[in-house]
Amino acid sequence: MKNLFEPSSISEVKNRIRRLTPESERQWGSMTVAQMLAHCSAWMEMATGQIKTPRSILGRIFGKIAKKSIFAEGPLRKSMPTDKSLLVAGDRDFAIEQRRLLDWLDRFPTLCIAAAPHSFFETYSQLPKLATLLRELSWSKHLLLLSQCKSEEEKEFYLLSATRGRWSHRELERQIKNSAFERTMLSDLKLATVSRVLPDNATGVFKDSYLLDLLALPATHSEADHQAGLLRNLRKFLMELGDGFAFVGEKVRVQVGNQDFELDLLFYHRDLQCLVAFELKAGRFEPEHMGKLAFYLEALDRDRRRPHENPSVGVLLCRTKDDEVVEYAMSRHLSPALVAKYETQMIPKALLQRKLHEWSLLLQNSSPDEA
């Protein structure tokens, strides 16, 4: 949605105002062109606190209903009721009102923030990289980001993810609640110390842990239960994986020599342009799991990978893992692979933030050779 905090939108509106003449055909009620220009200036005076209107009893009762239509994406409906203080009567000088409104458009962003600061405008006015994405999400999603996310990096992560994945408000709320940002950043930090063979653009693609509470798995379950649950909830699992993943198949047959093997789940990632193989383990990670995964990746690259695609990536999805054991197992591993764990219940956000802080300190204190 266009807004007056965006220079291109301001320029567009100013050009439209400059094209007006006293004889322009009106597309509003009974006001003249000069009166309508004055009316628009009055709206800006109210938005910046120059005009303060008392709130009536009816306004308190029906305010929430009216707010939905006012803040909805798209233009306001014609002939909507307005406050009496904004009504313009009597003759107005067209040239004066035109210059006045153009001047308001130049000053509005600054005055609005200074006179009536709002977290939305305060935040994005200081973050130009995020401000370019303002109109990609609805107001309700922006308000959710501002109320739930603390750092600029967290806001940027969810803003980009919600835009690319076309998340609904409910899905965005679920991803924030399930700490998708912390789990993804934690994975990136760990991969920086153990993996040197993943694609350069793999940052932000994979998570250190995946929340599979949607499967309702019992405390004791098999890999077959795990796989069946994921397939029954494939759409939700794709949402948990993140944007860019496309499902290819399950129990994918891999033939090497005279033997047949089965790969649990196979996906394709559009941005990485490679196949992504998921191997499911209902128990803890064991070093020997890496050998089998490397075998599958080699088979995929030889028999299924197309000339324009990048080498296949493997993900071992285990019930539990010891990070130190993983680091040892992957230190000399040459295949593009990583180890993640799955959770059947939501991980406390504070715990993930603490782990993220610990790994950040670990990387800061590591020498270049160690990292």
From TrEMBL:
<feature type="domain" description="YhcG PDDEXK nuclease">
    <location>
        <begin position="205"/>
        <end position="356"/>
    </location>
</feature>
<feature type="domain" description="YhcG N-terminal">
    <location>
        <begin position="119"/>
        <end position="183"/>
    </location>
</feature>
<protein>
    <submittedName>
        <fullName>Cytoplasmic protein</fullName>
    </submittedName>
</protein>
<dbReference type="InterPro" id="IPR009362">
    <property type="entry name" value="YhcG_C"/>
</dbReference>
<dbReference type="InterPro" id="IPR011856">
    <property type="entry name" value="tRNA_endonuc-like_dom_sf"/>
</dbReference>
<dbReference type="GO" id="GO:0003676">
    <property type="term" value="F:nucleic acid binding"/>
</dbReference>
<dbReference type="InterPro" id="IPR041527">
    <property type="entry name" value="YhcG_N"/>
</dbReference>
<dbReference type="Pfam" id="PF06250">
    <property type="entry name" value="YhcG_C"/>
</dbReference>
<dbReference type="Pfam" id="PF17761">
    <property type="entry name" value="DUF1016_N"/>
</dbReference>
<dbReference type="InterPro" id="IPR053148">
    <property type="entry name" value="PD-DEXK-like_domain"/>
</dbReference>
